[in-house]
């Protein structure tokens, strides 16, 4: 199998499934972690990610289709998304994509799905559609705090990655979020968490 990419916690291989292009995400051991803990973390993140990829998809948020999950092998075989990372295609001329991102996050949050690692590297663009990937740190939760932290983590990486698109890019994300049922109170909580982080 061809190694496509070495991520922070997984190796991504080009693969095939029933004649279609596929992607194998295999979580590899981390030597610095205790063996048992490492094993457990890689297994739960693998099954957790597969569950959330499917749940998001069922809500109407595009994610790669999950073909199979191997808990012991810490592997997910999924649809290969023929697209580019949002990080690499986002410019001042296509800020509508930011609105789309915000809309998708609102849909997830309103249905109790926290992505856990929102960045423009974890969103892929295929034609006019967005695909969300990398749910390994996600969870199911309806808590205001969890939604606020999910958005704040995104804001921090977005500001750092897309300096030239600030503040408009982030505003468009929030516009999409609020327009699709995302709650104002989440944004209020986000501000509180941000202040807390700053002063403590
Ligand atoms: N289903 C897919 N189809 C096509 N490319 C994919 C798919 N899943 C992941 N990729 C590519 O592999 C990269 C890493 O995937 P992912 O984010 O799931 O792993 P990761 O270990 O968390 O990596 P990183 O540390 O880069 O976030 C993505 O940014 C994307 O370019
Ligand atoms: Mg990633």
Uncertain parts = none
The largest beta-sheet arranges its strands as: 1-2-3-5-4
Number of helical elements: 6
Q: Please, what is the average pLDDT?
A: 97
Shape: globular
CATH architecture group name of the largest domain: Orthogonal Bundle
| Overall structural domain count | 2
Q: Based on the structure, what is the oligomeric state of the protein chains?
A: single chain
CATH homologous superfamily descriptor of the largest domain: Transferase(Phosphotransferase) domain 1
- The CATH topology of the largest domain comes to Transferase(Phosphotransferase), domain 1
The CATH class label of the largest domain is: Mainly Alpha
Q: How widely separated are the two ends?
A: 48 Å
Write up what this structure looks like:
It is a single chain. With 200 residues, this protein is an alpha+beta fold. It folds into two domains: 2-79, 2-Layer Sandwich (Phosphorylase Kinase, domain 1); 84-199, Transferase(Phosphotransferase), domain 1 (Orthogonal Bundle). Helices cover 45% and strands 22% of the residues. It has a five-stranded antiparallel β-sheet, with helices on one face. Strand 2 and strand 3 (20-27) form a beta hairpin. It is globular and about 45 Å long. Residues 7, 121-122, 134 line the site of magnesium ion (MG).
